[in-house]
């Protein structure tokens, strides 16, 4: 459907009245499209079908003679740790532990232990500190921000550039404020911009002096193997660089197979220095008899090897890359020459970040919702759900089929152009 039919000029040159006509056509189309969150599509979930019949009555005997059917093995099966450690976390198998089904839950758990007990480097449990602050690169992931709110942590936004967080700001802030105890990092194909932390950024994060002795990087490697192009970005060597810089306990690394197999039915992983791993397992021992080893065996049998996991992700790429290409093509066609409009072209991950002129994002999202296209709420990419410039919208193209995605993107273009026109008319223009 062409919402711009009959106008013989590019969409970006339409007047507000003409855009109102286009918007009325979008409304008439009675769309009902949800692209609020980055869900795998049904075709992606289908790839995991054989996984559902595993492990069956497998007579698998662990090399380490662990009986996977019984209690025990708090750290997780060695074979499974070897399979995922380097590829998902960039760490050796001895330095990771297998958790349950959600890496977010493990991040929450790590913060919980920090609050109740602190790290070995902490002067006292975090709960006893007058305030705890975390650096939050923006645009960022709303669930990270929600976790900060949950723990009563003050969020300090820092701009996320194409090369990673603005390191001049980060270094200045962490050096001067001992209440800043940590920072969220999605180092590869970040949610939502797709930013990739460059070597220089990672080195500076590893080396930077911090006023807090127990400063930690929550290194959320959610998109470790979620490539969309041949330019497959390797895991950054954060742990090695931290060790060389004398900050061995700084990284807390997380990953999961949520978006590799089935969300909620995968496995999550925690990795860090040997000392932090011991800290983690000590506290875990008081809360669980150990993670689900049947699921660990299921993963082992399904992937067979690290290469099996990487090969599996190539099938995801075949399904996902055309969606990102389609979204890009629609945005180019409708918004290419619009002032102060820009979007990211990620090489991996699940999202695209769209920036509009100041003051337009929430209006565009509202117009889209009224027209039957639910987008991620404007502001969700910023701490507290408030984008001070009201500019950024997270786009999640993964779930929709190509035709529906095209329709949603065409409708979005109309809503963006109309929001800009309405904003300018109300005197808030650039
Ligand atoms: N971290 C990031 C950056 C994500 O984008 C997501 C999911 O969208 C998650 C974590 C969720 O991970 P899990 O399913 O392992 O809890």
List the helices and strands and how they pair.
Layout: H1 16-28, E1 33-35, H2 42-46, H3 78-89, E2 96-98, H4 103-116, E3 133-138, H5 142-151, E4 154-161, E5 164-165, H6 167-176, E6 180-185, H7 199-207, E7 216-220, H8 238-244, E8 251-256, E9 268-271, H9 274-285, H10 293-303, H11 306-335, E10 342-343, E11 352-355, H12 361-370, E12 373-375, E13 392-395, H13 402-425
Parallel strand pairs: 1-12, 3-4, 3-6, 6-7, 7-8
Antiparallel strand pairs: 2-9, 4-5, 8-9, 10-11, 11-13
This protein binds pyridoxal-5'-phosphate (PLP).
Pyridoxal-5'-phosphate binds at residues 38, 102-104, 141, 186, 191, 220, 222, 256, 258, 263, 268.
Task: Give a structural overview.
- The protein is built from 13 helices and 13 strands.
- The protein is an alpha/beta fold and 430 residues long.
- An 8-stranded mixed beta sheet has the order 2-9-8-7-6-3-4-5, sandwiched between helices. A 3-stranded antiparallel beta sheet has the order 10-11-13.
- β6, α7 and β7 form a beta-alpha-beta unit.
- α1 (16-28) packs antiparallel against α13 and α4 (103-116) runs parallel beside α5.
- The longest helix is centred in the C-terminal third of the chain and has 30 residues, at 306-335.
- The two termini are 31 Å apart.
- The relative contact order is 0.18.
- The model has no long low-confidence stretch (mean pLDDT 96).
- The site of pyridoxal-5'-phosphate has 13 residues, from α4.
- Pyridoxal-5'-phosphate binds at residues 38, 102-104, 141, 186, 191, 220, 222, 256, 258, 263, 268.
């Amino acid at each position: 459907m062409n919402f711009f039919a009959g106008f013989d000029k590019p969409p970006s040159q339409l007047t507000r009245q003409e855009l109102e006509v286009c918007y009325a056509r979008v409304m008439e189309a009675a769309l009902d499209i949800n692209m609020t969150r980055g869900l795998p599509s049904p075709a992606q979930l289908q790839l995991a079908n054989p996984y559902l019949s595993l492990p069956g009555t497998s007579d698998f005997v662990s090399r380490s003679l662990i009986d996977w059917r019984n209690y025990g093995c708090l750290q997780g099966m060695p074979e499974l740790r070897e399979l995922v450690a380097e590829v998902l976390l960039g760490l050796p198998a001895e330095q990771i532990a297998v958790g349950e089904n959600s890496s977010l839950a493990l991040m929450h758990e790590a913060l919980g232990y920090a609050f109740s007990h602190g790290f070995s480097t902490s002067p006292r449990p975090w709960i006893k500190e007058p305030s705890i602050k975390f650096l939050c690169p923006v645009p960022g992931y709303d669930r990270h921000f929600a976790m900060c709110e949950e723990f009563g942590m003050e969020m300090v936004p820092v701009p996320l550039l194409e090369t990673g967080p603005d390191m001049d700001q980060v270094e200045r802030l962490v050096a001067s404020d001992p209440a800043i105890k940590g920072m969220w990092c999605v180092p590869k194909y970040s949610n939502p911009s797709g930013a990739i932390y460059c070597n220089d950024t990672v080195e500076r994060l590893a080396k930077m002096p911090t006023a807090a002795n127990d400063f930690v990087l929550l290194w959320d490697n959610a998109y470790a193997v979620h490539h969309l192009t041949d330019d497959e970005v390797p895991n950054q060597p954060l742990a090695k660089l931290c060790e060389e810089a004398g900050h061995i306990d700084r990284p807390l690394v997380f990953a999961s197979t949520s978006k590799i197999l089935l969300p909620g039915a995968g496995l999550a992983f925690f990795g860090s220095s040997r000392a932090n791993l011991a800290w983690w397992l000590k506290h875990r021992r008081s809360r669980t008899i150990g993670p689900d080893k049947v699921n660990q065996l299921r993963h082992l049998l399904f992937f067979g090897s690290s290469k099996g996991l990487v090969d599996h992700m190539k099938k995801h790429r075949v399904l996902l890359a055309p969606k990102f290409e389609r979204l890009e093509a629609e945005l180019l066609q409708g918004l290419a020459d619009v002032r102060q409009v820009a979007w990211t072209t990620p090489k991996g991950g699940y999202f695209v970040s769209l920036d509009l002129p100041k003051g337009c994002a929430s209006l565009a999202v509202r117009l889209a919702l009224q027209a039957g296209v639910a987008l991620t709420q404007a502001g969700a990419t910023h701490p507290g759900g408030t984008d001070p410039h009201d500019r950024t919208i997270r786009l999640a193209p993964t779930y929709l089929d190509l035709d529906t995605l095209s329709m949603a993107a065409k409708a979005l273009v109309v809503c963006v152009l109309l929001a800009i026109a309405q904003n300018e008319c109300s005197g808030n223009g650039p």
